[in-house]
């Protein structure tokens, strides 16, 4: 085996190579099932005899998809670290240059380097930059060049035999929907794993990982504080959680304290929220016209929450004292088993449409702002989850098993199905908001006057407000 140092720098500046990443599965927390799935691949890469003799099939490509900052790169490095194999990384955008022939030759370089150190891992971040659907609109130009690069990747992946020189290709993207279906076919990226936003328990576990090298007054206090932060950080990514702890560490040092305390953590949390929401924390700072939008948003969320009550997450109160890109409505955490049915998911998608639908209805499509951003994203994400992960829709299960064989043109189908669900959800949501328009107005008025409203009063208004009958909307 050649020493990794011999990988000439000048030859391939765009490749970053590590002999050993030093990252393990212990560094990735939450979503434990992902690690279990990847463990098997690691054993095969390590040439475990148990697998060798049985001729067990190792995927050539693993595609990790999910929002930025959820740990996809970390997972890829952990696979390399656990298997003890070298790691060759490139970014999809590095392949896309206007010079003819560069993309294909860079792909060749990358695979040649990895192969001479096999078993090894190739990681292509933002693979959508090079692997988006062919024949689509050529945004940003360089289409023909990109296509050459993509074809080269396909050729390389088809070319190697699994048994002799095992190179595992890991791709990462947050745009599964625009990937060329050819990439997802058997023998290419035929293991697709979604890396989503962490749950509350997941967030706690991630915080614990990043608190390993930080000082707290005691183990008990650390647990309590991190639980609290996990509670407050719905929709945060692993990278954002890591930032909170780093920031808290810096604040602690600045104040010359020995231990991270509650104040520092909450301060860091506030800052982190600020960086991605440009939020304003003090209601006196919120301009009147934004307050009106905010009140309508919260009222629409409240009405939908009454119309389709979530059995596992009763709402408790809302306010217009602060402004974020996700609704202010608070919910009680109910412990115990969640057993969501398809209808629960559908209702959740309809509920999530409320901020976007009301804003468009009240202020007009050209006059929208960002206060419905997170909810809209959530709706689309839920639809994708329902389709791909639950097996409750037309091709959910097939997708997870041996996806591309059973489901040709997967990305196009996913998009079409998601559009169908979203269209229904938006229509249904608009119909509910029209039917309960009077309740929406009443709740909005109360919010503008008192800045907050409790669940009890919301329910009362919902039940006694006059309704305007609407045509039936069916899925
Ligand atoms: P992505 O590739 O999905 O954009 P990264 O792997 O670059 O995300 O994540 C950035 C950093 O955030 C990681 O290096 C890690 O420190 C932290 N992080 C993200 N997700 C997790 C997780 N699930 N567990 C532990 N740390 C995480």
From TrEMBL:
Residues in domain AAA+ ATPase? 58-199
Main localization is: membrane
Family stated for the protein in its record: Belongs to the AAA ATPase family.
Biological process annotations from GO: proteolysis
**UniProtKB keywords:** ATP-binding, Chloroplast, Coiled coil, Hydrolase, Membrane, Nucleotide-binding, Plastid, Protease, Transit peptide, Transmembrane, Transmembrane helix
Q: Which GO terms describe its cellular component?
A: chloroplast thylakoid membrane
**Organism this protein belongs to:** Acer saccharum
Q: Which residues of the full protein are shown?
A: 280 to 754 of 844
- Keyword Zinc attached: no
In the record, what terms sit under GO molecular function? Answer: ATP binding; ATP hydrolysis activity; ATP-dependent peptidase activity; metalloendopeptidase activity
Name of the protein described by the UniProt record: AAA+ ATPase domain-containing protein
Compartments it resides in: Membrane; Plastid, Chloroplast
